[in-house]
Design goal:
The chain has about 525 residues and is mainly α. The chain folds into three domains: about 190 residues, Serine Threonine Protein Phosphatase 5, Tetratricopeptide repeat, CATH 1.25.40.20; about 160 residues, Serine Threonine Protein Phosphatase 5, Tetratricopeptide repeat (Alpha Horseshoe), CATH 1.25.40; about 130 residues, Serine Threonine Protein Phosphatase 5, Tetratricopeptide repeat, CATH 1.25.40.20. The protein contains 29 helices and no strands.
């Protein structure tokens, strides 16, 4: 099997998806079907063993197969692509993906229970594994009708696993055969216990937070700096409780129009602080909570908008929405030109532009709690109509973010709609202009985005690739998928001209072993 194009990018992003950065030598192919192999294997290691004839469906006990070992032990979900692509080529995909484990558990049950990170669930869902799979509901001796989301909610680190499943379409209210919903599964000692409840059990949320009113005030609080990001970045629940007792006002604003809730939403290390601020308002006047959640700062951002754009805590997002913040609210128009880029945007648009390490988790929680990826912004002046996916491509996303967003938006529909913004640019235009990695381009193309779509400037994603790509395989993929690579726009701009101006793609291979991008183009479009 020729995996040259796929594997050229797998190694470059494997470390980005890895849970551990420690480099270890992978066991040889003799150990292929073991936990030890997949605990350190790279996508190339897996491909090499498959090329040597490694079996995808060995005659072994349930859950003792390469896919089960990979889901449990791999540090990167990219190895799943190698396994499942090979299964497809061998005409074994159905058997590999849907082989039953012990007690009838599916591969998604295993991912929910034992995977190192929630990206494994995203990968399986995008390869059509069933995230609503159940144990055998007809066997009274088994934990019948338990779905992956029940298992994820029981993990001590289950918050992002539950959020991922919800974002992918799992039902947060489904009951097991014994009447247990996912909200009844979290461990009471779990650090993410209440945040999981925020995801799953939003009814009567104020009553669920009443215990916070008994927080012990800490007189060491620096209340003079209460209305600042620095205060909330280090404040404890007790310090906030003390400042509120000393007369700090949660609805007061700073010079930028930010309230304490804005600062807590974006910077609080303890998400319970958000609950405490809103609980105190609720106890004074229940209607004041809605006002606080909708209060816009000078940029036009509500606390949820502010947290999505500048925050570092996905659990804060869950708490705000549990209190009633609207995940699809548009930021109001602001007259000042410096704020025009954020005009008419939703929290999901803004999260796509978040530059913190928490962006992927924030996007996941927003999608899990009702944010719509199909909403278009309303910036006007011919620059609107963009979806969150457009903004995400500008921000050079990883493959995990891209796959999650695509699955949520299109859920199996190959041809996305709407395709373009007001300037007729698609997400693939944005991605190729930003020179994103191969895996992101591949995910967009697989979803049905065309390298040949023309924007209002008569530029195509293929032309952007010729101009901006620094990875030959990106241009090669776009060229391979193009149905009209020889097109020249009205200004006379052509692919050869753009390649000539690209300092990376215009270089020759001194060994003569690799076909240059221009030669590949000429093979499709002879001069």
């Amino acid at each position: 099997m020729n995996r040259a194009v796929n594997l050229s990018f797998l190694s470059s992003i494997a470390l980005l998806a890895a849970v551990s950065t420690g480099a270890q030598a992978s066991p040889g192919c003799d150990a292929f079907n073991t936990a030890a192999f997949f605990a350190t294997a790279t996508p190339e290691d897996v491909a090499e063993c498959l090329d040597q004839g490694a079996d995808l469906l060995p005659d072994t006990a349930p859950e003792d197969s390469p896919l089960f070992h990979a889901v449990r032990n791999a540090t990167t979900p990219l190895v799943l692509d190698v396994l499942l692509d090979e299964a497809l080529e061998r005409d074994q995909l159905e058997d590999v993906l849907h082989q039953p484990g012990r007690l009838g558990r599916s591969i998604t049950h295993i991912a929910a229970a034992e995977a190192r990170g929630p990206a494994m669930i995203t990968w399986l869902a995008t390869r059509e594994a069933d995230i609503r799979a159940t144990y055998d509901c007809n066997d009274a001796w088994r934990p019948s009708c338990t779905e992956p989301i029940h298992i994820a909610a029981h993990r001590s680190d289950g918050f992002l696993f539950v959020a991922t499943l919800l974002a992918l379409g799992a039902d947060g209210t489904v009951s097991t055969r014994f009447g247990l919903t996912p909200a009844e599964m979290p461990r009471t000692e779990s650090p993410s216990h209440w945040s999981i409840h925020a995801l799953l059990d939003r009814e009567d949320w104020p009553e669920k937070t009443l215990g916070l009113n008994d927080a012990e005030p800490d007189p060491n609080a620096a209340c003079d700096s209460f209305l600042t990001p620095d205060f909330f970045a280090s404040a404890t629940l007790g310090e906030v409780a003390f400042c509120l007792e000393q007369g700090a006002v949660a609805t007061a604003t700073d010079r930028e129009g930010n309230t304490a809730l804005h600062h807590a939403a974006a910077h609080a290390a303890d998400p319970r602080i958000i609950d405490l601020l809103l609980l105190r308002l609720h106890m004074q006047a229940p209607e004041s909570v809605a006002n606080a959640l909708q209060r816009a700062n000078q940029t036009g951002f509500s606390p949820l908008h502010h947290a999505a754009r500048h925050g570092t805590g996905p659990e804060a997002i869950a708490r705000l929405i549990a209190w009633g913040a609207d995940p699809n609210a548009l930021a109001p128009p602001i007259a000042e030109p410096r704020f025009s880029a954020d005009r008419g945007t939703t929290p999901l648009h803004l999260a796509a532009r978040n530059t913190s390490r928490a962006r992927e988790a924030i996007l996941t929680v927003l999608l899990a709690m009702g944010a719509s990826p199909t909403v278009q912004d309303h910036r006007g002046e011919g620059r609107g109509g963009r979806q969150a996916l457009h903004y995400l491509m500008q921000s050079r996303p990883n493959v995990r973010e891209t796959r999650l967003m695509l699955h949520k938006e299109f859920a199996g529909r190959r041809r996305p709609s709407p395709l373009s913004d007001d300037a007729r640019a698609t997400a693939l235009h944005f991605a190729t202009h930003a020179n994103v990695e191969h895996g992101v381009i591949s995910a967009l193309v697989r979803q049905g985005f065309s390298p040949d779509d023309r924007d209002s400037n008569q530029m195509t994603p293929l032309m952007n690739g010729a101009r901006f790509a620094t990875d030959e395989t990106v241009f090669g993929l776009l060229l391979q998928e193009s149905r009209d690579p020889c097109w020249v726009n009205e200004a006379g701009l052509s692919i050869p001209a753009l390649l000539a101006g690209n300092p990376v793609l215009s270089r020759d291979d001194p060994t003569g072993r690799t076909q240059t991008p221009l030669a590949a183009y000429r093979a499709r479009c002879p001069a």
